[in-house]
Amino acid sequence: MKNAAVGFRPHSGWTALVAVSLERGKPVVLLRERVHLVKTFNYAFRQPYHTAAKAPLEEGQAFIAQVRDEARQLAYRALRQVQAKLGDADYRLTCSGHLEGGGRMLPGLEKILAAHPLIHTAEGEFFREVLLHASKKFGLTQFQVKEKDLLPHASVALRRKKEKLQTQLTALGKPLGPPWSQDEKFATLVAWLALHPPSPRRTKAA
What we know:
The protein has helices at about 45, 50, 55-90, 110-115, 115-135, 150-155, 160-175, 180-195, and strands at about 1-10, 15-25, 25-35, 90-100, 140-145, 200-205. The chain is α/β, with parallel strands linked by helices and about 210 residues long. A 6-stranded mixed beta sheet has the order 3-2-1-4-5-6.
């Protein structure tokens, strides 16, 4: 079977997902999807820290834990479904690409819920962690890079100018049609990097 990678660009309650393989060193998009990471797709569940901030601390903590458990299950189920589709075409998921945030260290939950900027930061990290957890559980090797560093890193790693990379990413989506926004392009690029030769930012699932 041929190796494939899945890349993510997460948002509140959902993620863009693109599966990629390499043919003679060039990326081929195998599928793209927009995966819901909450069972109930509304504000309360998509922004669990905002919701928790309106409740007593213990209730808020329990709500966040509930949404996390459900999101991990949905993310893992999505990987299983992707592998089932790819397996029919003789591809096997071996690795995943993940975009990191700013890397800001978060305090305890009580302090997070007391500061609106920290709530936004925590929610971004929440759905990134969900996808990492699912990838590890699925046995994938994870590649991680900060989103702000994605294009510069890819330009060096893939030996292409940023402008050429952007043009190539746009062209990859033309046969698929919309949606092919920056979400899909970034998910494609981080999946492509995940298939590239090992780097220090790569970790193997336990």
